[in-house]
Write a structure and sequence with these properties.
This protein is mainly α and 356 residues long. The chain is built from 13 helices and 2 strands. Helix 1 runs antiparallel to helix 3, helix 2 packs across helix 3 and helix 3 crosses helix 12. Belongs to the binding-protein-dependent transport system permease family. FecCD subfamily.
């Protein structure tokens, strides 16, 4: 009896984009989801332009103002548009940073706000406010330095785990707790006016941002985002395991160091401009992974989900108690709490099924 013919190989549903010597492979579902998320981000951005300040402006009037026509040009282009652009770009930066750290740790809890980077950036800002007494440049620089020092502490204490796994999460939570206590002590020791300003900044807010305040952070984020994009093929190799990655020519320690610098840079830049905005970096990568149906964390869906989440949260923050605009960090904390409850409930159900 003759053997049946072998089944033809199954073609992977992926698309390869080429630009000279550079090529990029992505799944078709990832591309479709990314396109849908991009449309959603544009829609939320338009809604933010219409609802800015709690007052409604018709979409047609907003589009005309963007083109430089009508009576709402100054309101839309100078007051509302910087805030909308900041929400989209900062949300994308937080989503990308969370994707980087969750990929490194292979843990859905491996995000900058969990492992202490936000707290470190806040410490740097408090030092700038209470000790240095400088302006916006000093505040931004101190925030970035604080985030980098926190990352360095977590990096050094986690070297035995090769920057992956449960140890990094535990070390990060411990560093976060110590920095939070230090921040509380600094605020309690500061003058009343300084303490009020520092506490308000710690909530994370897009209120009052203008083009001058967001131009440099956006440029820095755009430059930093190129690094994970260029290293994404090596990141996919590490998802298969350290041994397979090394066998394929990936240099693990330099790769992880570069990714940590990119993730810390994105988080610290957002924190320097808008304060610590919690939980976007935690939730966006996993939501993007579920939508794209990928085994690992995909960078583009994570960044786009972050942009949608932060922009939508800012719209809610503006209209919830209008005309008073809440700090967006208040809304993202609620989103993060709901996400954590869902995540822990899912883990508990999975543990119960495995035990059964």
């Amino acid at each position: 009896m003759s053997r049946p013919a072998a089944a033809p190989p199954v073609l992977t549903r992926s698309v390869v984009l080429r630009m000279g010597s550079w090529s990029f492979r992505a799944g078709r579902r990832t591309l479709v989801v990314s396109g849908a998320l991009l449309v959603a981000a544009m829609g939320v951005g338009l809604l933010g332009l219409c609802l800015g300040g709690g007052s409604w402006t018709a979409p047609g009037e907003v589009l005309a103002a963007l083109a430089g026509q009508g009576d709402s040009v100054v309101v839309v282009r100078e007051w509302r548009l910087p805030r909308v652009v900041a929400g989209l770009v900062f949300g994308a930066a937080l989503g990308l940073s969370g994707a980087v750290f969750q990929s490194l740790t292979r843990n859905p809890l491996g995000s900058p706000d969990v492992v202490g980077l936000d707290a470190g950036a806040y410490t740097g800002a408090l030092v700038a406010i209470t000790v240095l007494g400088g302006g916006a440049a000093t505040l931004a620089g101190s925030s970035v330095v604080g985030g980098l020092l926190a990352a360095a502490a977590v990096y050094v204490l986690s070297l035995g785990s090769r920057l992956s796994g449960l140890r990094l999460i535990v070390v990060g939570i411990a560093v976060n707790a110590m920095l939070t206590a230090l921040n509380s002590w600094i605020v309690l020791r500061a003058d009343l006016d300084v303490a009020i300003a520092a506490t308000g900044w710690s909530s994370g807010s897009l209120n009052g941002l203008d083009w001058d305040e967001i131009a440099v952070p956006i440029a820095v984020i755009a430059a930093l985002a190129l690094l994970p994009a260029a290293l994404s093929p090596a990141m996919r190799q590490t998802a298969l395991g350290d041994e397979q990655a090394v066998a394929s020519g990936v240099r693990l320690n330099p790769l992880r160091l570069l990714l940590v610098l990119a993730g810390v840079g994105c988080t610290a830049t957002v924190t320097a401009a808008a304060g610590p905005i919690m939980f976007i970096a935690l939730a966006a990568p996993q939501i993007g992974r579920l939508l794209a149906g990928t085994a690992g964390v995909a960078l583009a869906p994570a960044a786009l989900v972050g942009a949608v989440l932060l922009s939508a949260a800012d719209v809610v923050a503006q209209v919830l108690l209008a005309p008073v605009a809440l700090p967006v960090g208040v809304v993202t904390t609620v989103i993060g709490g709901c996400y954590l409850i869902t995540l822990l409930a899912g883990k508990a159900r999975a543990g119960g099924r495995s035990a059964a």
